[in-house]
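User: Hey, my collaborator sent me this sequence without any context and asked if I could get a structure. I don't really work with proteins. Can you help?
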Amino acid sequence: MKQALKLLFVVVLVSFVSTVNAKPKWVSLFNGKDLSGWFVRGKATWSVQDGILVGEGGMGHIYTDATCTDFEAKGMFRISGTKSNSGFYFRANQPADNPDAFPRGYEAQICNNQEAYTGWLWKPGKPTGKATELLTKDGEWFSYRIKAVGTHIEFWINNKLVMTYDDKEFTSGHFAIQGHNPGMKIEAKKLYYRDLTK
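Assistant: No problem. I've predicted the 3D structure and written it out in structure-token form, which is a compact way to encode the shape of the chain:
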């Protein structure tokens, strides 16, 4: 009887520890086939080409239906074209007075031709958190990983930590990708997030 109780205790304890230590699962934001789970605002055109999400043609944003407060997100991105400029937004919402305008939220910058380059944190119209170095080039795929828990925000480019910042202005919202101007193209694939909200 004592042996059975000991065994039961061990099983319950192991189960409890496993549950406590279990990390949230990664959830796909993009199925590689169509724009299910996304909605479009602005003039940019969005399509799926060979399993890749493509944005071009003008200023606009594509938002996920999914929203998050505390999270980790990751994806592969490639930018090209004229005056190439884009960004991966998080905790982002459409402006109530003009849904086609720039989102209200944080932006993980994707741009290799200006001072506040890929890896910087932007708030609407304002470079905010400085990246330590530029690790990306137009026409080349790179990985972006973003973690936001409470006020603490971190960015990794190609698995290297490049930006850390604390800010409390935006607390919850969608993910979104930006099309900035005619002549540029943004491509994205392998987009995932996991909810870290407790």
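In plain terms: The CA atoms of residues 49 and 61 lie 18 Å apart. You can pass these tokens on to your collaborator as they are.
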